[in-house]
Design goal:
The structure holds two protein chains of two kinds.
Chain A: H1 3-18, H2 22-33, H3 41-54
Chain B: H1 13-35, E1 41-42, H2 43-70, H3 79-82, H4 94-105, H5 109-117, H6 122-149, H7 156-164, H8 166-195, H9 199-222, H10 227-250, H11 254-257, H12 261-277, H13 284-309, E2 312-313, H14 321-324, H15 334-342, H16 350-355, H17 369-392, H18 396-403, H19 406-409, H20 413-423, H21 429-438, H22 451-465, H23 472-509, H24 511-514, H25 519-542, H26 547-576, H27 584-606, H28 614-626, H29 637-677, H30 704-708
Antiparallel strand pairs in B: 1-2
Chain lengths: 61, 719
């Protein structure tokens, strides 16, 4: 555990938990699964947020 | 907290030594708490007792449940792996999922409940928060999560229908919906009580709406997907709004933001409706980012503050209200009402809805239910302990002046001081005025609901670390903002979830309503949901007897009854799957929870004391009304009418909740009897087993053996 590895972990964690890394994961997934050009970042993020319209996560008390 | 993995942990002399020390420290802390009477106790003993007990429970009990009772199987693929679609099903790193799950379960409940329960002293609350979470709350969360995961992430209602039958399923569905309505009303009431006549608080909270709209626009149009950047901008604006509130309060604008409780109710209902019909990207999603960040940040800050300041507790260990049941904050004796009041911090039925929602669809490995289900609930319980500390460090005189109903305290510092003296505590009128001045509020008298009390406690702790007395008012409003922000997020999200449930149910009767995109259906169902909780909120605000005093027990009962439904489901599945000998793991918490909650419901319905029984209260006021008399605290015949209507509605609801749960338990008993007497095991709705190809650690930290395995998912395990 060096300061650098802690920083790297923190950066990774924040990107994961906020969903900032979702688009990269989508691209990787797209390359191996689907034909055709992938969505742009803007299109992908719109789709992702609009999914929440149909499936709102409950927040507890 | 030391967290080892389920696979391959060996008993070494070092681990024996470590666990012996943990056990000794926590036993010593419990001893101090149990034996000190009459002198002030340091909060550090509470923290030590809690953390030590959690560590032991996590290491031994949760492991026993995972391995022996549930039989977690890491070679079996989870729904996230089998059904991976990159949208709702996708394998998520356990630490990330722990964060998501904790943010979803943590809310105002564990902060408000313990503050109210401090009326009975710090000891009953502490014992229940710690013992309750270990044996009941965390067990419920983990077992529900596991069973939902084995059923591809089915919801609580669906699982009850499939494993028990349509009667139990229907009862569970109605219970979930009505419980949600009460929950939203009570939480909204806490916000109203915190913001009424407080221009500083009202301004800061009002500003969160334009801030969220701006963030939504920024994230949608300017910088798609840059959540962290957007949240940071939002946080800066939010802190500016809190600081700006102090300026507004001194300025000519103060009048605009000084709202009556009734006006706030209208604002909240209108806001809830808008939040439910607008697309999520505009308001809901950005607010959720803000509130989650604030929530996790403030809880962390508070934990540091408690350890750093180590406040002394001024509260008694056990007050006489615990025995007499005549406390001003809420009526009723220790059993069952302390358990009802603490609610979420020890056992929360609402978590079963989260544990059977998004989380089970994202787990990588079965054994991770231990970290995510049990672990996250231990964290929530610790939040409750901190709230209890914050409330118990206040001088009892101030605590009762803030939490007794307005009808008892009157409106002046003098009348409140006299009323507090009648309760057997002392505070001078000057001290009360000074306390209000310190946090720059017009008054601290009868600021019920728990949030202001907690905010005074938090301000005390945080100003002890950062900024001293000069920043006390800022920290007070920071704490109010933090609570109001995430309560409102719960209200937004809850309204939306309630609307979906209603659309789904009514869609069975008339198809178009079920269509999510059909606007009239969407508006109609949203309006129904906000009007339902708005009704209880409005009656709560206008209730002469004090809305929190009347409604909070109903909220607690509702939440604990939901827990009873979840525990019943878990027990039924254990019995059906041939694990009768382990059924006590969820059966004992179920028996306790049912005893507590049904006793409380019974008392709320049938108790002869009008302060406790809703119908006795109704009768007393109805008789007086028939004779044309006005009984205090009501001031006129209209208020007398209000009391009669409210106590009737509340009494009917308490009876209905109890009946629904009895139906579910009876249905479960029939299924269990059938399962025990059948030769063949009854069919389960479990998804078939598929071999897993993912390798991932199971505990918070990867063990040496796990590190040697190739990490195929996430890839963050090299640290």
């Amino acid at each position: 555990m060096t300061p650098r590895s802690i920083l790297r972990f923190a950066r990774w964690y924040v990107r994961e938990i906020t969903g900032a890394s979702g688009y990269e994961r989508y691209l990787t997934r797209h390359r191996s699964h689907a034909p055709g050009p992938p969505l742009s970042r803007r299109e992908y993020e719109r789709l992702r947020t609009d999914q929440l319209d149909r499936n709102p996560g409950a927040r507890c008390c | 907290m030391s967290i080892t993995c389920t696979g391959g942990s060996k008993v070494t002399p070092k681990s024996i030594l470590v666990w012996t020390v943990i056990a000794a420290v926590s036993a010593a802390a419990w001893g101090v708490l149990a034996l000190s009477r009459g002198e002030k106790v340091s909060a550090i003993w509470l923290v030590a007792a809690a953390l030590g007990s959690y560590a032991i429970a996590y290491r031994f009990y949760s492991r026993f449940i995972a391995r022996r009772v549930l039989g977690v199987d890491d070679r079996r693929a989870t729904p996230a792996e089998r059904l991976d679609n990159g949208v709702d099903y996708h394998p998520t790193d356990r630490r990330v999922l722990l964060g998501h799950h904790f943010a979803a379960i943590a809310g105002a409940g564990p902060l408000v409940g313990p503050v109210l329960a401090a009326q009975m002293g710090y000891l009953p609350g502490t014992i229940w928060i710690i013992v309750g979470v270990i044996l009941a709350g965390a067990v419920q969360d983990m077992v529900t999560l596991f069973f939902s995961m084995r059923r591809d992430g089915k919801s609580l209602g669906q699982m009850v229908r499939e494993e028990m039958g349509p009667i139990g399923g229907a009862a569970a569905l109605i219970a979930v919906f009505s419980i949600m309505i009460i929950l939203l009303a009570v939480l909204a009431l806490v916000v109203v009580n915190a913001l009424a006549a407080s221009p500083w608080g009202t301004f800061s909270i009002a500003m969160t709406i334009p801030i969220a709209l701006f963030m939504g626009f920024y994230l949608r149009v300017l910088r798609p997907g840059r959540v962290m950047e957007t949240t940071m901008i939002g946080i800066v604006l939010l802190l500016a709004a809190i600081a700006g509130g102090g300026w507004i309060e001194q300025s000519a604008w103060a009048g605009v933001f000084t709202l009556s409780p009734q006006a706030l109710v209208i604002c909240l209902v209108a806001y809830g409706f808008l939040a439910s019909v607008l697309p999520v990207w505009m308001l809901l999603a950005p607010r959720d980012y803000l509130s989650t960040f604030m929530k996790v940040g403030t809880i962390g800050l508070l934990a540091l503050g408690v350890v750093f300041v180590m406040p002394q507790l001024s509260n008694e260990a056990v007050t006489e209200f615990a025995i007499s049941g005549t406390g001003p904050v809420f009526a009723g004796s220790l059993f069952p009402f302390v358990f009802i009041t603490i609610a979420c911090g020890a056992l929360s039925g609402f978590h079963a809805l989260i544990a059977s929602g998004t989380t089970p669809k994202m787990i990588q490995k079965e054994s991770q239910v231990r970290l995510i289900g049990y672990g996250a609930m231990l964290m929530e319980s610790f939040v409750a302990i901190m709230a209890l500390i914050a409330a118990s460090m206040l001088e009892p005189g101030l605590y009762y002046a803030m939490n007794a109903p307005a009808a008892l305290l009157g409106t002046t510092a003098e009348s409140a001081a006299t009323a507090v003296a009648h309760l057997g505590f002392s505070i001078t009128p000057d001290d009360l005025r000074a306390a209000a001045r310190e946090v720059q509020e017009q008054t601290v008298i009868a600021r019920t609901g728990g949030a202001p009390t907690l905010a005074v406690g938090i301000a005390h702790i945080l100003s002890g670390v950062f900024g001293g007395a000069a920043l006390k008012a800022f920290w007070y409003h920071f704490a109010i903002m933090f609570e109001a922000l995430f309560i409102l997020t719960t209200v937004d999200a809850g309204t939306r979830v309630g609307r979906f449930m209603l659309q789904d149910t009514l869609g069975n009767v008339w198809k178009p309503i079920g269509r999510v995109s059909w606007k009239p259906g969407l508006w109609g169902t949203s309006a129904l949901v906000v009007l339902a909780w708005g009704y209880f909120l409005y009656t709560g605000v206008n209730d002469p007897l004090g809305g929190i005093n009347q409604l909070f027990p109903l909220f607690g009962i509702a939440n604990q009854l939901l827990a009873a439904i979840a525990l019943t489901l878990c027990t039924t599945i254990l019995v059906k799957s041939g694990r009768l000998r382990w059924a006590w793991v969820t059966g004992i918490p179920l028996a306790w929870d049912a005893a507590v909650t049904l006793t409380a419901s019974w008392q709320k319905v049938f108790h002869a004391d009008p302060r406790i029984g809703f119908f006795a209260q109704r009768e007393r006021y109805a008789d007086a009304l028939a004779a044309g008399k006005v009984l205090p605290p009501a001031k006129n015949l209209d208020q007398m009418h209000a009391v009669v209507v409210n106590s009737t509605v509340d009494g009917v609801l308490a009876a209905m909740f109890a009946l629904l749960v009895i139906v579910v338990i009876a249905n479960a008993a029939v299924v269990c009897l059938r399962a025990v007497s059948a030769r063949e095991p009854l069919p389960l709705a479990e998804a078939p087993r598929v071999e897993s190809s993912i390798v991932a650690p199971s505990g918070l930290f990867a063990t040496a053996a796990e590190r040697r395995e190739p990490a195929q998912v996430g890839g963050g395990d090299r640290t």
